[in-house]
């Protein structure tokens, strides 16, 4: 049951640096509820000096934390997961108010995954960091004596990690970075998205109470780019883990390249859902429709680009049209609401501009497109379906990040592959077919980091990341531990 009151505790509303809450050097700014446009709280606005202080605190913590007993890191991560679960009733309403997500998404998915991720990486802290290697018989040369040379490779902490998180799932995305980074022995500076940082600041309070050493977890919030750019450019930051737009990822990459800072970038997506004539169309429609039903399409893995074989094209369009019409758009605190607002007025304008562009390019509007007449407050976009699209349209090639689905017909498998690969993105594609063998073989031809066959479910132990402009690197499961580590080789002669 959703809360009956919109009153939430906005938390400390201060930066968290070196184990202490401090005011932002540039004052603060308002965080507004996307559904009501009311003020949720005031976020601190960090200065360049605040950013430098966070780097100093994390650097000071690196030595002790990197050399700490993995069992102690595991204990703290387990305790952190338990503490988040215990304060669920404080965190869930705040997440909802900041993000505008429906109560089901805020109360269920977000915090459940946060708790699960900390417990998963508590186990991860205890995973072996040493990979034995086979000895080699090396011949004697003029430069060095030969003999049997043994070796092993070891995962070592990478150093100070800057984790820049996304606005769509603020705590979940943060936990996916913080968990493996801490487990591997790295201190972290969290830079939340400016739209919804308050729950992360409350989380910092929880981490302090659990007993994490000073400087191991820091949170720096900023409305503008000044503090973020100072953090990205800092020589004291050893790795940057970023989730967000490709445009920002490119900027981070260009700055980080100057200092050879290690990067993990999970960027934009334009997921293709390939629906073949032999697919279970009703099942495909249920999966694709989640683009609208799950956080208003603000998901990088969403199947926003439907490629429907001509034999089922009309059925797919009709089914999606019916699906969109059955979704309630409205107050995210009402139990039967499925589609809430997008994150901001600015973003709503961006999504609406894409819809207008699609129509000007020749797409057919078959569902949505207009602001809901019954909602004069809040930043709502209804479930929108554009049919009759072609692969060269902007709405087909570019990420919209909202409740908009485009449908493109295709004739055969070759055309489907060409259309699916015809964007600059490659994060997550989907194949819907009654022939699983064909679908698996097709997956090998898709230039994408992830492929779902007849499902939108993820396996959280699988590596996650993108091809092309969808990012660099992989996390997830034990791959996350490797992402936040450096490999060191140690060799020695056998006696």
In words, what does this structure look like?
- By secondary structure, the chain is an alpha/beta fold.
- The chain folds into two domains: 15-267 and 471-491, Aldehyde Dehydrogenase, Chain A, domain 1; 272-464, Aldehyde Dehydrogenase, Chain A, domain 2, CATH 3.40.309.
- Helices cover 38% and strands 21% of the residues.
- The protein has 16 helices and 22 strands.
- The chain has helices at residues 48-66, 70-86, 88-99, 103-124, 170-183, 198-210, 226-233, 246-258, 281-288, 290-293, 310-325, 345-360, 394-397, 413-420, 436-443, 477-483; strands at 15-17, 20-22, 28-32, 39-44, 130-138, 147-157, 161-164, 188-191, 217-219, 239-243, 262-266, 272-275, 305-309, 364-367, 384-387, 404-410, 425-426, 428-432, 450-453, 467-468, 471-472, 485-493.
- The strands form six sheets. Strands 14-15-16-13-12-18-19 form a seven-stranded mixed β-sheet, with helices on both faces. A six-stranded mixed β-sheet has the order 9-8-7-10-11-21, sandwiched between helices. It has a three-stranded antiparallel β-sheet with strand order 5-6-22.
- A hairpin with an 8-residue loop joins strand 5 (130-138) and strand 6.
- Helix 2 packs antiparallel against helix 4 (103-124), helix 2 (70-86) packs across helix 6 and helix 5 (170-183) packs across helix 16.
- It is globular and about 75 Å long.
- The mean pLDDT is 96.
